[in-house]
Automatic annotation (TrEMBL):
Signal peptide: none annotated. GO terms for cellular component: nucleus. InterPro entries: RIP (IPR028156). One of its GO terms (biological process) is protein import into nucleus. The lineage of its organism: Eukaryota, Haptista, Haptophyta, Prymnesiophyceae, Prymnesiales. This is RPA-interacting protein C-terminal domain-containing protein. It comes from Haptolina ericina.
Amino acid sequence: AGLQAATDVSSEYEEYLAHQDALLAARMDEPPPPTDDRVLCPLCMRGALELREGWLVVCDRGAADGGGCSLQLDARGHPAPLELIRERMCLLLSGHGERCRGSASCRLPLPHEQAGALLLLACPQCGMDVPVV
């Protein structure tokens, strides 16, 4: 039952991401990205996450690549960091959606928050501000 619930939540997250991709594509006047096993960047919602050098999670639209997304997460010690981010986002967005109609989005921690998390999910409507990883 737990595995099925996790699969259902993961499917809901993928549907949510596909919907967000379609909205962004309409706004940006560009075609939606192909549907595959990529993990959408939770920070910019435009790029896909990549694992570089076996430990650094970055957005493929990163600032170094001219895309402007500043996501860089140290994934040392996590055997499957991209899947961890996908599952965590799925869980957090699903739980938030049950309690609030607001639009939650990810942000990088402020300097005084650095010790607690690498990436946060926040909602201005309900005040949620929780670590993703």
